[in-house]
Amino acid sequence: MCRAVDLQRAVLAKNDAAAHVLRTELTARGTTVVNLLSSPGSGKTALLERELRLAGERGVSAAALTADLATENDARRLARSGAPVKQVLTDGLCHLEADMVARHLHDWLPESTRLLFVENVGNLVCPAGYDLGESLRVVLASVTEGEDKPLKYPTAFGLAQLVIVTKTDMAEAAEFDEPSFRAHVQQVNPGVEVVLSSVRDGRGVGTLLERALAVAEGNHVHTPAMAQAGA
Amino acid sequence: MHEMSLAVAVVDQVEAAASSRGAVGVTSVELDVGELAGVVADALAFSFELACAGTVLEGAELITRTVPGVARCEPCAADWAVGMPPRLLCPTCGAAAGELVSGRELQIREVRWACPDTPHERQRQPITEES
Predict the structure, then answer these.
(1) ipTM exceeds 0.90, yes or no
(2) Residues of chain A found within 8 Å of residue B97, distances taken between Cβ atoms
(3) CB A125 to CB B38 under 8 A?
(4) Cβ–Cβ contact A70 with B under 8 A
(5) pLDDT value at B1 more than 90
(6) Model's pTM, two decimal places?
(7) B121 pLDDT band (50/70/90 cuts)?
(8) What is the DSSP secondary structure assignment for residue B96, as one 8-state letter?
(9) Do the Cβ atoms of B100 and A225 come within 8 Å?
(10) Among A17-21, A67-71, A225-229, the least confident range
(11) Which of A2, A11, A158 sits opposite B106 (nearest CB)?
């Protein structure tokens, strides 16, 4: 009974399987999931509040699941949009996993939901490896975070299907070098779209909603080179 | 730090494999960890030891093998090491990588079961995912 065995199992196989089930079930009922990743404080909640409000004005049924280690502040902020919102408290866990999302959707998510935005825990490391059953993964970075953020967090940016720069109204004060940021994004994720946004002056607000709806309608989504893993 | 979640996932899978084989202990677990998997090997080793406590894996050694990131350019039909931070643009022609050949692995490669009777004699026996 002494032997080595080639197990060859993906460590995240359980999460990947749960994510696949979730994506299949939600897609079948007409719900598209958008996973939002960023550092803490880059403006996920502020942008999401605006996008949810816009969805409401346009008659698109959108909902949001927002995750934090503690407090329900984000859910309260997002609820001002009028959209169904639920807070996930991770009790210290640094990322969301597919089965947590599935558990929270059960008995809550309205059947008619077209778009479900999942605001991940503010963290660019841990959430990157976890598929949540999304059809669109969005990574946000604010102009104050530095142009080399995509190089510091290559897995998060490398797997993004859309990159949104936030707080561009502060770009000048922060001396944000947009061409440099774009070049760094392209280095880790060639071909991904970069959108500039500011909730203060309205720039780019609505683009996230448009891209999410395009995905919901079955339009082509960017496939990052990093996601084309032959391994 | 998501390494604890990963360590628990490794332990769960190895425990399941152990119980289906009636294994009494685990000597070592070997993992392939890609350069771009976003995993810190030291944090994983620390978490692994904690996750193993009280399980059939208690005392098992974790061996991690780092797999370098390699991308492929289709027009050039060539591979290159992407490095860190990674460059997914072909160093020859500048085209986007068509594929990441390796570097995102997070895979349990091999498990060695404890061997109370004949500690020095070991035998490899590949098994399928389903067995």
Answers:
(1) no
(2) 190, 225, 228
(3) yes
(4) no
(5) no
(6) 0.91
(7) very low
(8) B
(9) yes
(10) A225-229
(11) A11
Cβ–Cβ gap B100/A231 under 8 Å = yes
Note whether A183 contacts B: Cβ–Cβ < 8 A.
Answer: no
* A123-132, A215-224, B24-33, B107-116: range with lowest mean pLDDT: B107-116
Average pLDDT for residues A11-23, to the nearest whole number?
96
| pLDDT over threshold 60, residue B109 | yes
Q: Which of B12, B72, B86 sits opposite A188 (nearest CB)?
A: B86
Question: Which of A129, A104, A114 lies closest to A34 in space, CA to CA?
Answer: A114
- The four Cα atoms B89, B92, B95, B101 give a dihedral, to 10 degrees, of -60
Tracing tokens 């628990």 back to the chain, one arrives at: B8
Question: What is the b/e burial string over A95-118, where b = at least 16 CB atoms within 10 angstroms of the residue's CB?
Answer: bbbbbbbbebbeeebeeebbbbbb
Q: Are B27 and B2 in contact (CB under 8 A)?
A: no
- The answer to whether the Cα torsion of A119, A122, A124, A125 is positive or negative is negative
The strand pair at B70-73 and B99-102 is best described as antiparallel
- Report the chain A residue with the minimal C-alpha distance to residue B68: A231
8 Å CB contact of B9 and A186 = no
pLDDT exceeding 70 applies to what percent of chain A?
98
* Contact: B115, A231; criterion CB under 8 Å: no
B60 contacts B27 by C-beta, under 8 angstroms: yes
